[in-house]
Amino acid sequence: MKIAVGIDSLGFAAPQGFLDLVDLAEARGVPAGKYVDGLGVRRMAVAQPWEDPVALAANAAARVLEGPGVDRERIGLCVVGSETAVDHSKPIAAFLHGLLGLPAQARVYETKHACFGGTAGLFTALDWIASGSARGRAALVICTDIARYALRSAGEPTQGAGAVALLVRERPRLVSFEPTESASWSRDVDDFWRPLDRKEALVDGHLSVQCYLDAISGAYRGWTELTRGKVALARRCYHVPYGKMALKAHRHVRALDGLSEAEADATFAREVAPSLAMPAELGNIYTGSLYLALASLLRAEAASLEGQHVGHFSYGSGCTAEFFAGRVVEGAGALCALLELGQPLEHRKRYTVAEYEAIRGGDATADRTWRGSGAARPGEFAFVGLEKEARRYQRVPK
Ligand code: CAA
Prior knowledge:
Number of domains: 1
Helix content: 25-40%
CATH architecture: 3-Layer(aba) Sandwich
CATH superfamily: Thiolase/Chalcone synthase
Number of helices: 13
Structural class: alpha+beta
Largest sheet: 10 strands, mixed
Shape: globular
Bound molecules: acetoacetyl-coenzyme A
Radius of gyration: 20 Å
CATH topology: Peroxisomal Thiolase, Chain A, domain 1
Number of strands: 17
């Protein structure tokens, strides 16, 4: 008998502060309606220098490892998906191996394909388990990123930061997947990229929207051919660079199902909106975006969705994409209540535009300044600075 594989537990980490996008609109002389209604964005997380991609990843993973029913000693694979690497050679996963005390026998590495890196990690983990190579062990898949565009650019209101950690194993307690029924779609395009010497991404914004829509058409068509109407989707989670993109994506795939725009819009509140609440708090978190949408959905509706399927669309600029379905496992509702998925959004600080600009102004030197753990919160990991050119981290005592 085939054994189910999928997400057993989930946790995410958010920087301690955010910028309200109405404040940004006012500062940029843009009508607030353009950001709030036109782009569908509300807040974007702003990372302080000590909240780097490694620290965010460690904080998300600690929530999973210190949560109910997880045995750290049984982790045999740790894959980190990121497009905000901190080093051209040493992967974020190697830092995490030390910070989290993972077993010496674990395989650890990083994957990159823009926002798709986490999904690449998830499918590697699913295949590793399904093939038997895991020998009963679990995988930790972590998506971590800081989305930065130039100040005053069109992309500025679609920034964000955060990390999502997924524990993947046999007989999962949250969502199971069927890796043989996942459809990929790829093309060589220049919609979004980040040259090696830059912290800020370059983007051809309107082209990127079109590339995303072409990719979802290709991947969704592939998925419907593979599943031949056998899988009914109760909900749909999309990669969410900004809320309006999820609406555009939904209209696009529902048109392939034969729905008019008005009919697709009528399904949006039920099928998609519950997954957008947490992305609206953090903004675009790149690799983790789809999984933050899933966390948002599970937090709102896991109990009532048990036994039902959720569509997932992952998009990585450049580009590659995947459409796949997951089934919410019986008992997921009770586990989600224990996971306290909304906790990282509590007690956050609202930065002024001046504070946000000051943080961004320090980007160029942030990595080279020794600062200790800064104002990191109790129990959190922080990037403290360089020692003999090597990155150092500390965990603030709880
Ligand atoms: N009130 C209400 N709505 C308004 C408005 C107002 N006063 N003014 C404008 N709008 C609407 C516009 O009609 C438009 O709506 P539609 O998209 O439905 O047509 C919307 O607000 C945006 O307006 P513009 O297209 O004029 O916005 P823009 O040119 O300033 O830039 C953007 C929009 C291209 C998305 C830009 O924010 C950007 O480059 N973002 C980064 C790239 C990105 O996120 N791409 C997404 C696909 S790629 C991907 O998903 C990978 C990834 O993570 C990056």
